[in-house]
Amino acid sequence: MKQHYKVVILGGGSGGIAVASRLAKKVSLKNKILIIDHADYHAFQPSWPLVGSGAEKKEHTRKKMRRVVPHGAEFMQHKVSRIQPIERLVTLDHGQTVSYDFLVVALGIQLDFDQIEGLTETLGKNNVCTNYLYDYVDYTYDTLRHVTAGNVIATKPNSPIKGGVAPENSLFTFHDFFHKQGVRDVKLMLRSGNHTLFPVEKYRDTLIELFTQKQIDYTLNDELVKVDGPRQTATFFNYQNRTTTEVPFSMLLVTPPMSAPDIIKESTLADEAGWLDVNPFTLQHVRHQNIFGIGDCTNLPTVKMGAAVRKQAHILPKNLISQMKGRKLKAHYTGMTACPIATEYGEAIMAEFDYSLKPKETLPFNQARNSKFLYLFKKRLLPIMYWYGMLKGRS
Ligand SMILES: Cc1cc2nc3c(=O)[nH]c(=O)nc-3n(C[C@H](O)[C@H](O)[C@H](O)COP(=O)(O)OP(=O)(O)OC[C@H]3O[C@@H](n4cnc5c(N)ncnc54)[C@H](O)[C@@H]3O)c2cc1C
């Protein structure tokens, strides 16, 4: 394998593969692109809440990494341990270095499970679940099927997260599940460290309506800080009244705190909060013209979703090629993102908006209302569009 590539892409997730596919179609870049990722598999993560609700099989959500690497790009399976933008070098976990002319950073978001006291030792046991790790996602449905009473709590941290509405989505399908099973003695609740349910008013109103209709309690500004698995209690710190409460649970669905990958935080590429510091429109790094960023690891002020990455993947390759040719960067990302939310088995809504935080819906009906089509879209069409469109550089 070579030591130098025209383009090196860090991360073979949604953003990394989508960008590689588009760049590899350029004759001038064929076999000059390297993707580096330590993972064996590439997963379609948006299906994980469906797996946790028993509506999808987890094996259907991932493929071997080598199957998604496009022709014309090479793949190196290693963890990146250091980025040196001035030297144009990246160092891998076994000490090898690779140099580049252009760098695309697509390292995703870091899951900080260890920030919650007691969580890592009890995850996957004592009815403590998460839909954020492939290995644990079927435990969510196993637990759901055995709960007959008590508090079923979904948590959300105060930090930015990927898949922004996944916990709400799960609570809605859990509600439907219990209803259909005739389980009446459970109390569903959302405990969120955020100060708002959703950044866009129209969809926030729908979520509030749905929580009220389904009698799901929600508490904002309430951060999960400790889990006692054997005693099945969760402790929350409330940012508003500065109090701590301990709540018993029969099922706890944790969305962990998240942050930028340490390797970005520790580099000179980060902003003050640790995210990759890019221009929100061109996706070019604000200090290094030969570096671009995409997806969850960036400081783009939008909700971190695969749908946002899909739009960014149209912009980044165009601007990268303009930069190579010394031309002006003309392609602009508008912040478009989309959040499909199953409201029960067979029904969904879909928030769609841009940097203005105003709805920008693409379908010819009100996307904040229950729709069977949107559920089918989320469950069946999106994975097809993802594997055969976005990852192939076609949509
Ligand atoms: C439960 C859940 C529900 C979701 N629901 C939705 C949804 O309904 N709709 C939607 O659009 N999006 C949803 N998402 C979000 C979506 O999956 C992400 O926003 C998207 O995958 C981000 O793409 P990315 O390329 O930035 O990161 P990723 O796809 O996560 O890829 C990052 C890659 O970087 C690699 N990597 C990280 N560190 C290193 C390192 N040091 N060295 C080498 N490789 C490294 C990783 O192995 C990974 O392959 C959901 C996500 C989850 C987990």
UniProtKB/TrEMBL annotation:
One of its GO terms (molecular function) is FAD binding. Residues 5-127 form the FAD/NAD(P)-binding domain. It holds the Pfam family Pyr_redox_2. GO terms for biological process: sulfide oxidation, using sulfide:quinone oxidoreductase. InterPro entries: FAD/NAD-bd_sf (IPR036188), FAD/NAD-binding_dom (IPR023753), Sulphide_quinone_reductase (IPR015904). This is NAD(P)/FAD-dependent oxidoreductase. It comes from Macrococcus equipercicus.
